[in-house]
Design brief:
By secondary structure, the chain is of the alpha/beta class. Helices cover about 30% and strands about 25% of the residues. The protein has helices at about 35, 110-120, 125-135, 145-155, 155-165; strands at about 1-5, 10-15, 45-50, 55-60, 65-70, 85-95, 100-105. The strands form 2 sheets. Strands 1-2-3-5-4 form a 5-stranded mixed sheet, with no helix packed on it. A hairpin with a 5-residue loop joins strand 4 and strand 5 (about 65-70). The longest helix is centred in the C-terminal third of the chain and has 13 residues, at about 155-165. The chain is globular.
Amino acid sequence: MTAAKEINGLRFALSHNLPDKNYGSGLQVTNSTEDFNQLVSEDVDVAIYGHVHKQLLRYATTGQQILNPGTIGMPYFTWGKLQNHRAQYALIEIEEDGLTNISFRKVAYDTEAELKLAKEKQLPYIELYEELRREDNYPGHNKELLAQLNEKYAYIKDVQKYYDFLRE
């Protein structure tokens, strides 16, 4: 569940979350440095991960950089005054002599146009996505609501059909 990339002698490790766990709260931005140490090893200079939808720059106990570029479509903030719908990303500048700059960016975009496109493309769980985009509320961890939507739209059957297709 990880990828590696070397650029001008710098070794990057990329993962969605923890290298051996693609879910959970193990890398929330407020977690201890020891939790983040799981992203690095002797052959990693910079670890990049996602999952928590928050931009982050910190260091492992051994000194390697750890960063989260944020999220393009689902920013999440626990501090209300920082909440916004801007797409997030990071620019990493590397020159011949190494890493020279990391810039975190946030870019506004047309949320209503995005929602219109999502409906046209029949995005699953569109109700949840609309609530997220318009109300800054993500009900995607509400198991009862998910079960209702799965039943209403037969999402389980769609997933089963997709896996059957992959096995062919």
